[in-house]
Amino acid sequence: MPSTNLKHQVEQEHSSSEPNLKGTLISVSVVGGFLVLSWLAVFGLFLAR
Amino acid sequence: MHMHKYEKIWMASGVGTLLVFLIVLGIGAFYQGTQPPSCMVTLDPQNVQAHEAFKEENLGLQQLGEKEYTLNVLATAFNYDFGKDEDGNNVKTIRIPAGSKVMFQATTEDVIHGFQLAGTNVNMMLEPGYISTLETTLDNPGTYTLICNEYCGTGHHLMTATVEVYEE
Amino acid sequence: MIAEKTGLGKADSKLVMSFMWVTFISLLIGGLMGLLQTLVRTGNYTLPFGIGYYQILTVHGVILGLVLTTFFIIGFQFSLMAKTVGMTHKQRQWAWVSFWVMLTGTIASAIMILLGKASVLYTFYAPLKAHPIFYFGLTFVVVGSWIACFVNFHQLYQWKKKHQGEHSPLLAFMVVINMLMWFICTLGVAATVLIQFIPWSLGLVGEINILVSRTLFWYFGHPLVYFWLLPAYMAWYAILPKIIGGKIFSDSLARLAFILFLIFSIPVGFHHQLLEPGIDPMWKYIQVVLTFAVIIPSLLTAFSMFATFEITGRQKGYTGLFGWFRHLPWKDVRFFAPFMGMVAFIPAGAGGIINASNQMNQVVHNTIWVTGHFHLTLATTVILTFFGITYWLVPVLTGRKIDKKINTLGMTQTIVWLVGMFFMSGSMHLAGLLGAPRRSAFSDYQGSAQAAEWIGYQYGQAIGGSILFIGILIMLYNFFYMTFKAPKGVEEFPIAEAPDGSEPTPLVLENWKLWIGITVVLIAFAYTIPFVDIIQNSPPGSPPFEWPIGNG
Question: For the whole model, what pTM was predicted?
Fold first, then answer.
């Protein structure tokens, strides 16, 4: 029992120093993609005019 | 200061993208000559006629060569002065063949005005004391509306003229 | 009792409520003007009693852009400071002085606008000349806000004296950053108004230097928008985590973002002057680069927000890539309204990057795209966050509880706002790309075919504007209800904490001399050479023009 507790604790410590943020990375990437696409669209308009 | 691994990735790619934007804009501006209009020539706003380009007879479209023009415009509240035609009437429409290189050259005698050819990249501010210039090639035929896009008073929305780009 | 639990005493509450009253009265007046503008622009409606379009446009801009924002922000910041570092009796007295000075200025300017003597829009570009009292009024608003700055600085200073070696509370730190930025940038607008506009409008000097006045105005004009945004960021960083039952993602990164805003918000004014003659294009480009630097703290913020949501969700046991998304309190208006504000900041930010992109500005400058842009930033992101704050702040101040009814009404209000803004700002963006100008009454531009294409979008704006006005009416009802009718009780003043065991915030983040020093150096770098250049190469100045705005 104590050993599993310790393991649990270690895991917790690990997760608090570097939490799982996969969803965050994907979310900000989508935001970034939107920024790039809008910019390219108006840049295209600038070149076409 | 601790930063999450993913945050480092996000910030690096974000800043990288901004740098790419800036480099693209910088190359366009400094090497291809698409600087935003930034003419540095000044004149006396209460005596603009002292400047060659804004003498009564030089206003309007001046042909410089094959498909090369200058358009001199004097803005006042609430009018764009293109000079007079042969019959002595005020010119309200300018006709330019498609593919022409045009230098727009304008100033204002009174307050701030805008100078925008809707649907094109011709867009600049006119400020008393300064000449504004913008050179562009008008490739796409059509009828374009010149509009004042900076508030200049009660008749601001009536300040307009027409530029026709026609196919030869 | 109440004071103990909410941390705001009666006297503080009364002070902050006064600011809130001005905010919401401004919302009604300014919003009504906005509605009328969108109706006029359909071409089917004429203003009664000979009121001019540009007169109501001036009211709209001044009352919403300058008055509502400044009053809400200063009031909200007083509440944050009173809560986190405390407010002495003497400080409160000065806070009242700031309130009355600002209100006096507001009323003076408002009277001039209503008399039709100041239809110069909120940017008051020379050489259009308003009545001198209009400029005096604006001066009072700015001076009043300076008093608030120094009260806030003094509050933190006193706290630090009592808590040597400790970090200032995050929210107090943020307030002081915002007020420092505000003080430094308003020096520019104060200079142009006091040195240029007032003597010139009184006839003491004959002419005004146009480009100097515009450059000083825009030295102030861009940090102005960050002055609006930073209080929203305060709520996102330090209040929302508490509302969703989590902790602050990173105290250090939050402080770093605010420091970056202080440093980079000011030396960027030329990106509003990209299409102006008389400014060296090299310096325009340099300020464009600095403008792009001010995007960086917003990128940091985007990550911090998602991370706060994800970590909190995972701690509550929601797993999977996006499982954490479901834990968010979607039915709590204190979360929902600011969250939708964040969502709106994505297209708003995209538009902002486009606007600042040097020569690309020619596509959008002074088109109604720009109006669409700042109705996403200020009138959606910032204002929805302010509304979200109001739903707990007003009950805290009035000793009442946010009940089910007000929560439902608040949710409805947020959705109405989003729908209205979708139509209005969406139509503005599209019409702007086609070339439709901003700041213009209805016009068919002498039967122009291009202008005919814009009219459909102008109807879109009127539909959106009408929906938004309904949103304003609901919000006003909510404000009255929370002030007078909501059930009595103790509402929580939500302030989030840093996570346990997080590493200590580096002390350098609170080295004020360092950050102010860098700010000043960067301003000097970005402005000294071009500004000297502008002055040395100045054309003769301009006399005042009154007749174009319908006077004289």
Answer: 0.95
